[in-house]
Amino acid sequence: MAHIGSHGQTRIGIVVPSPNAILEPDVTSLITPGVTAHFARVGLETTLSEDLLERMAHELVHECRKLALLRPAALGYGCTSGSFFKEGDFDARMVRHMMDASGGIPATTATTATLAALRELEASQIAFVSPYEQSMHARGVAYFARQGFAVRGDACLGLMDESAIGQVTARNLSELVQKADNSQVEAIFISCTGLPSLGALPALVAERGKPVLASNLTLTWHLLHLAGVPTSSSLLFNYIHPPV
């Protein structure tokens, strides 16, 4: 059940990796009047690894219990690789654990949100772009393939350090997206909540002539959707359609 704050505000809660300096300003820029975002942090390292992602997944449940005290309308996990790095239904189980820990508050992850956005667009053939090194990148490709999407193109930067990921430029992104895109691709997804990709999306959409999604956009959109915010659909539409 959605909860409304004492001043008529809808609250969303997000758990974010500790070194990530990109997600919070992105979410703040995307949310609409009447919505406030509240954050908790997990992890104590700057280098992405499976061990770190495991520890963060365990910390996630505890932080959701804390955020639940704010009575948010929805909860999100703002780590894309942290919700696809394991096979099977790991992402879905994370969502269930978040909801159990919070007493039933609707929850999502960056990957769950992206699945929802791609299905909203009816895009089944995608390109997967990431800043990760090859083995983690390959897990992302495999995740979307398991979810029924045809990954027709992909490209990565080979990075695992959060500070380096946070310094990626719009030009870097443009070159990476161009490498991954082709005529079969219906939509492009840029993974990682620590990647400064949101501001580059309008130009990328114009360049490619097709929807280009990024983790912070899909996560914020899905949180607003779960929270019952009426403007959530227009948020996604405004970013992913090329200008006419």
Derived structural class: alpha/beta
Low-confidence stretches: none
Q: Kindly report the spatial arrangement of strands forming the biggest sheet.
A: 2-1-3-4
Task: Please give the radius of gyration in angstroms.
Answer: 17 Å
Give a brief rundown of this model.
This protein is 44% helix and 20% strand. It has ten helices and eight strands.
Describe this entry's structure for a reader.
The chain is of the alpha/beta class. The protein has two domains: 10-112 and 217-240, Rossmann fold (3-Layer(aba) Sandwich); 116-213, Rossmann fold (3-Layer(aba) Sandwich). Helix content is 44%, strand content 20%. The protein is built from ten helices and eight strands. The longest helix is centred in the N-terminal third of the chain and has 19 residues, at 50-68. The model has no long low-confidence stretch (mean pLDDT 93).
